[in-house]
Amino acid sequence: MKVRATGGQETSDKWEVQLRKGCLELAILAALWDGKLYGLEILQRLESDSDLVISEGTVYPLLSRLKMMQLVRSEWVESDAGHPRKYYALTPAGRQRGREMAAMWTRFSSSMDRLLAPLAKGK
Amino acid sequence: MTTSGDAQQKIEAYLSRLRQRLRGMNDDDVREIVEEMRSHITDKAAADGEVMAVGVDAAIARLGTPEELASQYTTDHLLARAEVSRSPLRILESLFRWASLSAAGFFVLMGALLGYFFGTALILCALLKSIHPHTAGLWVIPDGTGDYEFSLRMGFGGVPAGGREVLGWWIVPAGLFVGCGLVVLTTRFALWCGRQYRKSATLTLQESTCEDWSMNKPISAGKSFLRLVFGSAPSDPGPLTVAQRWLSLVELVVGSAIVIGYNVYHVVPNEVPILFVIGLISLRVRDGGWRVIGLGWPASWRRTILFALAAAAVRVLLGQFVVDPITAHFWPPAIAPSGSDEITGHAMVALQWLFLVWTFAAFGEEIGYRGYLLTRAADVGGRSKAAYWVAVLIVSVLFGYGHYYKGPAGMIDSGVAGLVLGAAYLLSGRNLWVCILAHGFIDTFGVTMAFFGWQS
Known about the structure:
heterodimer; A: 123 residues; alpha+beta; Arc Repressor Mutant, subunit A; 3 strands; elongated; B: 456 residues; mainly alpha; three-stranded mixed β-sheet; three-stranded antiparallel β-sheet; 15 helices
């Protein structure tokens, strides 16, 4: 039985992890919006513009799943560095999905903001 | 860009470990993933145009251990692929992997197998009705005790004595409708379960911290060979407490009592299903899963199968040319299981035996004896190397008693089989799949011999 005294702390951490994970897919679609990027570029983009990435190891499996769901496609491109890099780009389905998710996000976050307004004002 | 030799070595070590953990996935996918990781680590570690060992270490630490990375790829990937293709084969493939990870997966796999089995049986029966109009279909047949049994007949045999066909030609639309419905429902059920699992699994995977994965640990030649052959052995949770060892002793004694109680004195029901269920529950509750007995996903199925074939060959040859000739001096030959004489020349009987052999004998006995009892016996000795070998000996004696009906010659023969299977288990780094497959191969060989009437 894994009941711990620090249950409250643990649940809130779990919530944060869940939140990040839930947003990661949309964040990747957004990062690819302007054109193709390779894995490390996507990571750098996510790291500079957000604090979504916990472990870099989670992004690659997610990219592979997005590819399986045909939301992104990939191609290997020879680089100046001397080794090929795997570039990802959005497919039309990925673009569509990104738009839908962004719309959902906007609706959701504005209603959350309204709800949270009292928490932000008062101390 | 130049890469120092040291850095190159670290990258290769990480990638080869990753490659090993990804086995079971399709080769092209594995190659893509490995190449992508190589490119990532090289890019990440490159400082001032040179890839240094320190940079590689940092890049790898950020990626997580190969095990973590691979498990994210495999569970995520397989379930997603199954979801896209919706093919029962893909779904079973991912369920099989999932079953090796958790109890929930095991039950979903069993449910899915059952659903697909009945679904295809109904569809087959409906299709065969047009070829065997008088014999195929759903029948009610009186059995010897005055009761009735329902039988879904494919129609290859004759008309069963006293039997009455229930649905007639309606089996064609009904069978197709219900059969296809079962297949579709099973698929939807499995995918639903998979989605539920993924929701919880991604959480736990995310939480695990990515500690620095050191690749510089020296590994002895023998160990590294076994690792090469079988991947890493199931990890031990650490030393057992005295109370745990006593509990294991109690379990071992109770288990032995059940084996002898059924086989010698016939006072308890058949030991195999009992040990199977108690064993799975005990291992789940006390050890947190079945990985501890080596039911995890093997690093390589090909090597597992080859090892199992070798073990089966050793057992058959040893029995035929060493054990049987020796025991023949003292006792009458071993008694065959009752009903096995009907196998000769009867394909359907042989198939029924094969089914029994692969479920009851291969899975049931191996999980009960080699998986459960052997682990508990080794617990008593603190799970040291010697404890495991002594455990093999004890369990082999019990396994001999498990075949009491065969008479002294048969018991010794089975005991030796237990030794061979136990040795294969330990030598393969405790991979229970080797035992399960080897047991299945041995008995399949026996059934085949009986079918062609080659048994002496």
